[in-house]
Each structure stands twice: as structure tokens, then as C-alpha cells.
Amino acid sequence: MGFEEISHTADWSVRVWAWDLPSLFAECARAMNALAGTVTGKGPRLKRTFETEAADAESLLVGFLSELVYYQEQENLAFDVFELEVKSAALTGAAVPKGQKLKVEMGGAQITSIDKAIKAVTYHNLKIEETSRGVEVVIVFDV
Amino acid sequence: MKIENLVQISETEWEIPMDTRPDMRVPVRLFATRELLEQVIDDKSLEQAVNATTLPGLVGHVIVMPDMHQGYGFPIGGVAATEYPHGVISPGAIGYDINCGVRLLATSLDFESARGEMGTLATLLNKYCPSGVGKAGIIKVDLKELDHILRDGSRWALKNGYASEADLARTEESGSVEGADPARVSERARTRGREQVGSLGAGNHFIEVDVVDQIFNEEAASTMGLYQGCLTVQIHCGSRGLGHQVCTDYVQQFQNAVRKYGIDLPDRELVCAPMDSPEGQAYLGAMRAAANFAFVNRQLLAHSARRAFEETFAPRTRNWHLHQVYDIAHNMGKIETHEIDGKQMKVCVHRKGATRAFGPGSPGLPPEYQKIGQPVIIPGSMGTASWVLVGTQESMTRSFGSSCHGAGRLMSRSKAKKEVRGDELRKELEKRGIEIRAGSMPGLAEEAPSAYKDVDMVVETVSKAGIAKKVARLRPVAVIKG
After folding, report:
1. By C-alpha distance, which of B91, B26, B88 is closest to B57?
2. Do B339 and B60 meet the contact criterion of CB atoms below 8 Å apart?
3. What whole-number distance in Å separates Cα of residue B224 and Cα of residue A37?
4. Which of B43, B195, B412, B441 to mutate to test the interface with A (most CBs of A within 10 A)?
5. Contacts for A38 with CB less than 8 Å, ≥ 6 apart
6. What CATH number is given to the structural domain containing A32?
7. Per-residue pLDDT tens over the stretch B284-295
8. How far apart are CA B199 and CA B429, in angstroms?
9. Cβ contact, residue pair B414, A123, below 8 Å
10. pLDDT for the residue numbered A7
11. Per-residue pLDDT tens for B186-238?
12. What are the residues of chain B with a beta carbon less than 8 Å away from any beta carbon of chain A?
């Protein structure tokens, strides 16, 4: 699992890889926190849940990360622990199933400092692909 | 793509022909010099421009301005017109920050007589104009009041004492886009917006105090109330979290719309729907509502800027008043009538990082600007010049009444932070007589002048191309950033 920033003229782009879809989603969230320079406090831990349905894994990912953008802006919350469940009536058997539901339980805390907020998660050339590292995606964030 | 693959039409105009890729519906027309093209040839600007030509219902060319750089989906500096009402509207071709734009205010106050007060002025502007990541706005409204803002735009500000009739007359669309439908704005977007009315935000948004440094067109400048040496204020921001959420919502929803309408696109960020479809109508209503929010946002910040000017200068002088020169959008989709292949046609002009630049006699301009054309405000990078231009008859026929919107980024934010230290940049700018109030030093470094193209070169290009004319050059003396 890991991520690396890719040069982008105006916004932020990051390549993220992991061994399966749930771990990829969690790693994308961690990459977002790292890019934004988010620091959380030592106060009480908070939990939130998020559920969504979409036609494909990429839409689930955008929906999930957009939810994190919303929590950051509205509730000043960042999350670092994720329990993800992907349900699908029609798994293709591949690491990237199609037509699925996502359920996430997230643990996090209040943000004490942030360098730069991510304003939106884009679909620009978004494609989750199977690679020798498991699954991989490049995401562009609007900042 | 290589420059050799482009067809050079003139020193400042190039074309990517239709046969470059089989899925292109129209050619691309680039306004740029060879030098400016060379600066972007290795990023994805041109590829994104070609991708934009695949949108159904396009007419004419996809136009790209000299401040172009890669964005996501659609290039920054891009203009695309689709036939109304059967052509498509694409949220990604307008951008997340719907109606991001610039307002220019001016005073007859001479900089030399105000020089000693610039520190106080910068501090008060910073105090009264909220800026920074997620910062709440000047006012917080309930959801019912927010709906009035979304529907009425600057008319709401006028009714509530934040604007004058003169402000509205000198705002694109009079600050109130018809057809705004608050019911098409999600609850989540409204929640994000209700606390941010009258806030600058972060990123490349700013308030800048400038001095009119040079005048190129006396008649147009005096019509706008711009005089050599006088102080001006630029306010650059948009629709904040509300606009971002509207775009996020509709880009997500349109993923299904493209399947429904059988639209095949090379990039999912370009998703679109026919304007006369239920999906297209819903987005148009929401996008216009977000645009109205942005007009009110800049109006409230202008109100606060006037308060800062009054507190700073009213005890010493009577001529501190800030009048509005103009307020323009550079991320917007507008239904306009243009001449295409010799015929008048109603189209939806998508401008993303491009400014409307209507020529003399165009409908919608206030009477005093009918003769000179619409003011076009081009903010430069921090610490460098900004420009006031006017639209031309040529912009109407060659670029759907559009021009550039700024200097255009050249360097990634992470590279800028590696090469420039925020605190050192601040010292350097202050040494040059520019007051800086910034919430974040890394944020300041990201916006370093070296991260941008030369704005003078960009302006020279649109001027030579004939799609805008120079009126005045502005020099910064105070910058307020989140």
C-alpha cells in the first residue's frame, strides 16, 4: 500500500496503490490527509458511517472521498481509521468488481491544523486498474 | 502533441485541425504565441482541449486562451459553445468554483497621498474580509434566506443594504442570473454555503489593492473612473463550498446521464447532458443559483472593503469612496447569441478560466460601456501587474466574446513550495513596497510569481490577436490572502 504525488500544474494529483479495493479506498483517504497536511487533535475519537451505491468502483471512490471533503469543511473532522465493506450482487471475480455498494465506518478526530484544503474530487481520467501491486488509481483533486 | 502538429494561422493564433483525432467534432483554435505554447506543450492542456471537442452539439471551434494550462477534463483557459437547446451542458467544462470571478473597485484617492496608510488599510481589509481554509463568511443565513440569495443574487444584496444600484448596473448579468433554481441545489450544497456568504476562501483567491500605473486608452479609462496614480481594489473569489458541491453533485449524476443519452466521451470529468433534458435543466438551474451566490459573495466582500477604506481614510480625506468598475465571471455557462458561419445562433458558452469580453454595443452592458466595450479584468500573479482591458468586435466573432482570465499557472504547487519559502517571499514583496497579509506561508509560496506565466505577455497576446484592447495596467501595493 502506498501513494505518491504526481506533478500537476494547478491542482493535486496522486497515484495510490493497494492490494484490494477496500484497502485502496482507505489509502486514498490517507493520501488526501497527507496532501492537505491535516493534523488531528488528541481529543475524543469520533465515528461516522457512510453508505453509497454506484454503477462502478470509480464512482464509489469519488463519493467516498467527497464525503471526507464535506466532513473536513463542515465539521472540521478528519478520519484515519476505516472499515470498508463492498457488497455486490454481481461481482465479476476481479479485484475491481462492477455495480456495487459501499459501507464505511470511519474513525477520526477534530482537525487542529491544515495546510491546504481539498475542495473537490474529480473524475479526470479516473480508472481503477489491476496491476502487479494489486489495484491502482490516479486521482486529481481540485484545490 | 508537438507544436509542429499545429497549424499556425498568425503570430498569435494556431489551430489543432479536425483530423488530429477521429472523435473530434470541431477544431481547436489557440490564441498564443510560440513562446507561450512552448510553456504548456508538455502538460495536458492541448490534449484536454482536443478531448473537449468531443462534446455533442459543439459549434465553431473550441477556443483556448494564452493563459491556458492543464486542468481536469477541460483545460483552464477554455471556451466551448454548444447549440441551444439540443446541445449539451457540461459541469466539468465550467468548473467546481462556479462563477469564480473578479470585481474591480476604484477610488479617486491618489496613492502618493495614501501611501502612509497602506499598512492600516491592509490590516483592516484582512480583518473585515474573512479568508482562509473553511472560514465562515461575513454573515450566516438560514436556509430560507439562502434560497433568496440563490434566486435573486445581487438584488438580495441591494435589498439588504450591501449594494447600490450602481454596483448592480456594473456587474455581469446585473449580479442576478435569470433561471436560477434553488430547488436544484442539494441540501448538502446549501449547508456548505449558508455559513460562507462573504468569504474569500483560500487557494489563489485574494483581495489586492493596486495603483493605476499606466493608461493605454484614456477614453475607456476615464469612462471607468480609472486615473493614473489612483487606488483600486480587486476581489477574486467564487461560490465557495456551495459551488463546489453543486459541481460535485452534477458530475456524479451525469455519469448516468451520459449512459442514458448514449454520449461517449474520452474523459469522465467531461460528462454532460442535453440542455433540454431534465438533467440538463436541473444543472442549469443549480449552476445559475451558485453563480448568484458568488455575485453576492463578492458584493459582501466589496461592502467590507468599503468599510476598511472608510475607517482608514475618511478621517483624513473626502475622496475615499470606492465605486465599482465592473464584476466579471470567468467560470460560467451562459446562454448567448453569437454569429456562427454568418448566422445568428443561440448557444451555451462554457467558459472555464476565460472571461466574457463583449465588444462595444453588446446587449447587457451598462449605457456608459456601450461605446467602449465591456471591461475585462485580468489579475496577474501576486506581486506582478494586473490589467484592465475591454472586449472588441473581433472577440465577438472570433472567440464567442471571450478573452483570457489571468496569468495562468506554469509550475505545480508542490514545486513552487520546494523552490520558494513563503516567509522569504513575503519579505521580498514587502521590500518592494507591497503589504502582505496571508494566513498561510506555504499557501503564499504556492502563489509565488515564479509559479505563473508573465501576465504582460498573456495580455500582449490577446491584444495583438484583437480579442481585447488594453486600457490600464495596475501595480499591487497590498495583498490579502487566506
Report:
1. B88
2. no
3. 43
4. B412
5. A72, A78, A111, A113, A114
6. 3.55.10.10
7. 999 999 999 999
8. 24
9. no
10. 85
11. 999 999 999 999 999 888 899 999 999 999 999 999 999 999 999 999 999 99
12. 43, 69-73, 76, 92, 96-97, 133-134, 188, 191-192, 202-203, 241, 244-245, 247-248, 251-252, 255-256, 259, 267-269, 271, 409-415, 440, 442-443, 446
Report CA Rg, chain A: 15
Where helices occur in B327-412 by DSSP H, the ranges are 393-398
Q: What is the pLDDT of residue A92?
A: 47
Residues in B touching A15 (Cβ below 8 Å): none
How far from B100 is each of A6, B206, B330, B351, CA to CA, in Å? 26, 12, 6, 11
Tally A–B CB contacts below 8 A.
103
Nearest to B354 by CA among B380, B336, B378, B370: B378
Least confident interval from B223-227, B256-260, B433-437, B441-445:
B441-445
Q: How close does chain B come to A37, measured CA to CA in Å?
A: 11
| B331: its cell numbers | 467560470
- ipTM for this model: 0.92
Instruction: Give chain B's domains with CATH numbers.
Output: 3-410+452-481 (3.90.1860.10)
Instruction: Give residue A102's domain range.
Output: 2-142
Place of cell 497515484: A15
| Cβ atoms of B200 and B364 closer than 8 Å | no
Contacts of A115 in chain B (CB under 8 A): 440, 442-443
Q: Where are the alpha helices (DSSP H) in B161-277?
A: 165-169, 187-194, 218-224, 240-260
pLDDT of residue A91: 42
**Which positions ≥6 away from A2 have C-beta within 8 Å?**
A16, A17, A27
C-alpha dist (Å) from residue B362 to B59, B74, B390, B402: 21, 27, 12, 13
Q: Do A116 and B267 touch (CB under 8 A)?
A: no
The pLDDT tens digits of the residues spanning B270-287 come to 999 999 999 999 999 999
Please name the amino acid found at residue A94. A
Q: How is residue B141 annotated by DSSP?
A: -
- Mean pLDDT of all residues belonging to chain A: 90
pLDDT (mean) for B65-82: 96
Give chain A's largest Cα–Cα span.
42
Number of residues that make up chain B: 482
The yes-or-no answer on residue B405 being catalytic is yes
Give Cα B227 to chain centroid, integer Å.
Answer: 24
The mean pLDDT of chain B is 96
How many whole angstroms separate alpha carbon B206 and alpha carbon B198?
13
Which residues are registered as beta bridge partners of B436?
B479
Partners of residue B411 in chain A, C-beta under 8 Å: 9
What is the count of structural domains for chain A?
A: 1
For the whole model, what pTM was predicted?
0.96
By Cβ distance, the residue of A58, A114, A119 closest to B96 is A119
- CB contacts, 8 Å: B134 with chain A: 72-73, 76, 117
For A109-140, give the DSSP string.
Answer: EEEEE-S----EE--TT---EEETTEEEEEEE
Question: Cβ contact (<8 Å) for A59 and B252?
Answer: yes
Nearest CA of chain B to the CA of A81: how many Å? Answer: 23
Of these residues, B330, B338, B350, B405, which one is catalytic? Answer: B405
Count of residues making up chain A? 143
